[in-house]
Specification:
The chain has 585 residues and is an alpha+beta fold. Helices cover 32% and strands 24% of the residues. The strands form five sheets. Strands 8, 18, 19, 20, 21, 22, 23, 24 and 25 form a nine-stranded mixed β-sheet that branches. It has a six-stranded antiparallel β-barrel with strand order 1-2-5-4-3-6. It is globular, with a radius of gyration of 27 Å. It is an enzyme of class 7 (translocase).
């Protein structure tokens, strides 16, 4: 018999419920307000009292309102039909909602109940199967979607029957499995899974090592991220987080892209809805939206739904990873998620940590980031979830708790800087403060040596060292003036500017420069570093600046022309001529 309860207290979205039976942590319940059931999640149990966070507005809720407990955790529905969808944080299909504003208490089915999918069986009757094994597949937006043994199953099963090739809906029975006790289990194309629990139907989860090529030089060359890796992008407003996220989403070597707009302002979420359907996949030329899922949860929605949205996105990502696909998950912004945690923690009157965030914020962030990763599946295939979150620290303060705790767990740190944005140096990622810990992994070093060439890691380290030297000399020139430092200081400074302008900066709105393949990155990096290692003859610091400005312009023309085209070669000949004029014999 389902547990019932009544409302005993309401503080914002936190409701105290007196239950008449057993209640579990993270269990879902519905509170009926004026005949409308509102979905809620139990976040604390104390004796007969259960404390639930409501995913809707609690306006009009009264003491004594009835509550029904569902006996399961917050779940998502997984199956074909999710690609190209726009969901909210609870996986309601926003396109099925009526009106401009979402009405309270209205929930929609996440998949398409009516659509018939062309099912192709991959397993045979009599086979022994276990959780995550492929029973069949359907094609959705040119992407093969595997129909798997549901993740909730345990142990080995015998496949008693499976439907022949044909068209079926997601709720039709497509297979029957028999367990070792002889009990039969019907399987459909859809399945449900609780969002707070990771999907772990894989054999091994090794340290990731394959370079995730994004076409962005600041990432691939300077601070690479890997398939199944984790990274985050902190930065104040107006520094280009959204443009950088769009560039990574469009160009990264991923099969599925999931965008979690977690607690962003409504106008920014509208931009995502407007811009993503217009983006083209550079690999196929088809709309990028065909392999994208958007989970929108604006800042004016209840804080509980904001917290749920990131878990919903991660669970969907793990589902596709179990098919052997490469998934890219972008969350914007995890600061709003952390603020939702803080708000509920404060209402529960828990002991506050720094800046009133929960004491266990670091553990919550670490557990979430740990769900990303590169896995070996039982059938020998590999899959990955690469997670990149953005952080919006107030006033650009990178010492605040969310940024600090995320730095402990994310392997890549892309520090967006207001000063670089003001100087129009985009992407405004600080090349000195940013880092990638994957550069230290022996597995990654071996992969890069094979993929790009030996000595690449050392070359990247040399670039960063030259950028540091350039920054130090720039500060000295600002204090002492141009005449106050030796001539070789000016040369060193301008060599660092050469690296910055030609390799670190990139035009996201240029058809050619927006996407730079790794072969081109290697070629340009070699070109720039060969020049940086040369000795030049100059009379004074004016000659130094004039020469390097002209050289930078010539090299940037190479960036704006098709690789190895006639225009590219002509720009390169101009660069070679400029260098030979000043190079020491």
């Amino acid at each position: 018999m389902a547990t019932k309860g009544i409302v005993k207290g309401v503080v914002g979205n936190l409701v105290t419920i007196e239950a008449d039976g057993p209640v579990a942590q993270n269990e879902i319940c519905y509170i009926t307000v004026a005949g409308v059931p509102l979905m809620s999640e139990v976040i604390k149990v104390n004796g007969k009292n259960a404390y639930a966070q409501v995913f809707e507005s609690t306006r009009g809720m009264r003491i004594g309102d009835p509550v029904t407990f569902e006996g399961h955790m917050l779940e998502v529905t997984l199956g074909p039909g999710m690609l190209s969808k726009n969901y909210d944080g609870l996986q309601n299909d926003l396109d099925k909602m009526d009106g401009v504003f979402l009405s309270r208490g209205s929930y929609t089915y996440a998949l398409d109940e009516e659509r018939r999918w062309d099912f192709k069986p991959l397993a045979s009757e009599g086979e022994r199967v276990t959780v995550g094994d492929y029973l069949g597949e359907v094609i959705e937006n040119f992407q093969p979607i595997k129909i798997m043994v549901p993740f909730t199953f345990e142990g080995l099963y015998t496949l008693k029957s499976i439907r022949p090739e044909g068209a079926y809906t997601v709720r039709e029975e497509i297979a029957v499995l028999v367990d070792d006790e002889g009990k039969e289990h019907a399987v459909t194309m859809e399945q449900k899974w609780p969002v707070k629990r990771p999907i772990t139907c894989y054999v091994d989860k090794p340290r990731p090592y394959k370079l995730l090529e994004t076409g962005v030089r600041m990432l691939d060359t300077m601070n690479p991220i890997v398939e199944g890796g984790t990274g985050f992008i902190p930065g104040p407003f107006g520094t280009g987080k959204t443009v950088l996220q769009h560039a990574i989403s469009k160009q990264a070597a991923a099969d599925i892209v999931i965008i979690a707009a977690c607690g962003e302002r409504a106008n920014e979420v509208v931009e995502v809805f407007k811009e993503f359907p217009e983006l083209k996949d550079p690999n196929t030329g088809r709309p990028l939206m065909e392999r994208t899922i958007i989970i929108a949860n604006t800042s004016n929605m209840p804080v509980a739904a904001r917290e749920a949205s990131v878990y919903t996105a991660m669970t969907i990502a793990e589902y596709y990873r179990s098919m052997g696909l490469r998934v890219l998950l972008m969350a914007d912004s995890t600061s709003r998620w952390a603020q939702a945690l803080r708000e509920m923690s404060n209402r529960l009157e828990e002991l506050p940590g720094p800046d009133a965030f929960p004491m266990d914020l670091s553990a919550i962030v670490a557990n979430f980031y740990a769900r990303a990763g590169f896995v070996h599946l039982k059938n020998g295939k590999t899959g990955s979830v690469t997670f990149i979150g953005t952080v919006s620290p107030a006033g650009g303060n990178l010492k605040e708790p969310v940024t600090e705790n995320t730095k402990k767990v994310a392997r890549c740190f892309y520090a967006l800087e207001q000063e670089r944005a003001d100087r129009k140096r985009y992407p405004a990622v600080n090349p000195i403060d940013s880092y990638s810990k994957y550069l230290e992994y022996p597995e990654f070093q071996a992969y890069v040596a094979e993929r790009i060439g030996s000595g690449w890691i050392e070359k990247v380290a040399e670039m960063k060292q030259r950028l540091i030297q350039g920054k130090e000399i720039s500060e000295q020139i600002n204090i002492l003036g141009d005449d106050g430092v030796p001539l070789e200081y000016h040369v060193t400074f301008w060599k660092s500017e050469l690296i910055d302008f030609v390799l670190c900066q990139q035009d996201a709105f240029d058809e050619v420069d927006c996407n730079c393949p790794i072969e081109r990155q290697e070629y340009m990096a070699d070109k720039v570093m060969d020049i940086c290692r040369m000795e030049f003859d100059f009379e004074g610091f004016v000659e130094v600046s004039d020469f390097f400005k002209e050289l930078i312009n010539a090299l940037r023309q190479m960036n704006y022309t098709l690789f190895q085209s006639e225009d590219f070669r002509a720009a390169e000949e101009k660069v070679n001529a400029l260098v030979s004029q000043r190079a020491k014999n």
